[in-house]
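Recap from last week: sequence in, structure out.
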Amino acid sequence: MNLLTFRTEQDLNRAGAGMIASLLQIKPKAVLGLATGSTPIGIYEELVHLYRSGSLSFAKASSYNLDEYVGLSGSHPASYRCFMNTHLFDQVDIDPANTHVPNGLAVNLEQECAYYDAMIEDAGIDLQVLGLGHNGHIGFNEPGDVLVAGTHVTDLQQQTIEANARFFDSEDDVPKQAITMGVAGIMKTRQVMLVVRGESKAAIAERALTGPITTECPASLLQLHPNLVVLMDEGAGAWAK
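Predicted structure tokens:
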């Protein structure tokens, strides 16, 4: 585990983008595992800047997103497909056919999960970007007595619904289920970049990275990953000094 704490948000964003850019420069056909939410936006902005400056290309790369809300189409403004198109895909030269997000409108959700798992297994993700939920979730793998290994449909906990309400007109509009890559899929990726921001995440970051490994804190399983890099701002990483 490599813990890095940054003095400014810009420094953190540049470091995260630099990791992705370095991978693409070494391996243009790299497979990226991507995340949504407010945590990675600054990193994606830096990647767009690098692309526009002519120093980075996504032309041969492919991507697989962690999750998508059940019941939202890719054109819905709060969907994760729309998020990725807005913040990254539509602003760089990645082939849209090489960008993958679970289908939240699939008629057979179980079949969609199996299909997504098969694609991930075949592709092999080189670098997985992760955020960290206040309850220790990664992707939408929520705390519980057991965790599902593969991609699956999960019921969102109230704390997660409340945290995501800011992206919707009201809390009532937040979907109650999502399709998410399972912990086993995340653990199979060649490298994990966990990004944690803000003082409100400090306690859960410390618990996840130094506490007992338990399904009650899904992110704690990342302690077992052989190539984990954690990027934190000063608020989130105060405990690590």
